[in-house]
Specification:
two-stranded antiparallel sheet; seven-stranded mixed sheet; alpha/beta
Length: 338
Amino acid sequence: MSAWYTSIMAKGVSKSSLLWQRFIVQVAHASMKSLQAKPRKQVIRLGKSWGQAGYKLVAKSRRDARRNIFIAYPTLAESAREVIVKESFEHFAAMMFEFMKAPVYTTEEVLGLADLEPGTEETINDLIQLNKGVIGVIPHLGNFEFFARWAGCRGYDFTAVVREPDDPAFAGLVDDLRAGCDYKVVNKGNAFRPCLRALGNGGSVGILPDQNSGDCFVPFFGMPAGTVLGPAKLAVATGAPIIPLFCTREPDDRYRIWLGDQITAAPDARSLGESELLRLTREVNIGLEQGIRRCPGQYLWMHNRFKSAFEEKNRSRWPDDIDVEAVMTRWELSRTIK
């Protein structure tokens, strides 16, 4: 067994996840030039066809998506939930295919593919003028990679906080695809100080805070969910406003960029301590949830979002206002879904 494989497995990464990442690397290297030469519409159609295949073949991800969508929409008919599952597979495969094509886009092409909802750019510019920086919280919804590329092309001082892939070969592929973009990238594990510097210089940071974490447990779709405290800590430390950011795909495959409601730390945030961090993080989850409800088929439901919250050791950390009986009933029902 290689030293690489041993070190990765020590982090608790599943063998299937590693094999999948290696498979993606091989496919990408074999088809990259051909894919980048194809028209964008064709690339997206090809991605969706792969998503349809993934829906049929990747049983674990299909099951996780079904369970998460039941948790989020427990009163929705099973047939309607299944439509969302299929759309999610298709959307994320199409997004990954476009991610591989995107390095050949010109600045003009990137800017030309995005439509901003009325008032969006004015709001962003007004926030930047405050000179406190802007903390963008971005869910795994729509095309968050395209948003970072758009922000760089638009001339914003933008730093994206990303999770480094487990497989070094896959990480190298992703780094190559991001190379040449006019935005900075920092790895999630060492991001706090670089983000402080970026905000201190009046720049913007983009954080995807909607994956499983052990930082705190606050509601997400009515369920306790392990959620990162990073955006709240940055807001308290700097006074920078938090703003939910969304970049979703339209029926014509263009993108729509829009904002949620601004979230601001209290003037005495530092003295309030943990209670203020939890309040801000609750509001972040509310803002992200509102955006996801608008385009549920474009959300990454395949991630095991609620795993840590329902570990026995963490249940004492749930918010006091959670209806434990109702939550546990929903959780147990979700476990029966295959």
